[in-house]
Amino acid sequence: MAKARSNFVCQSCGAVSTRWQGRCEACGEWNSIVEESGAQAGFGPPAARGGRGKAFALETLAGDAQPAPRIATGIEEFDRVTGGGFVPGSVALLGGEPGIGKSTLLIQACAALANRGERVIYISGEEAAAQVRLRAERLGLAKSPVELAGATQVEDILATCAAGRRPALIVIDSIQTMHTDAVESAPGTVTQVRASAQALLRHAKLGGSTVILVGHVTKDGQVAGPRVVEHMVDAVLSFEGDSAHHFRMLRASKNRFGATGEIGVFEMTGAGLAEVPNPSALFLAGRDAEAPGAAVLAGMEGQRPMLVEIQALVAPTSLGTPRRAVVGFDSNRLSMILAVLEAHAGLRLGQHDVYLNVAGGLRADEPAADLAAAAALVSSLTGAALPAERVYFGEIALSGAVRPVIHAGARLKEAGKLGFRRAVLPQAQQTTDDDKSAGVALAACGHVAALVAEIAQSSAESPAGRRDGARRAPARGPSGD
Question: Which residues are annotated as part of the binding site for ATP?
Answer without folding.
Answer: 96-103
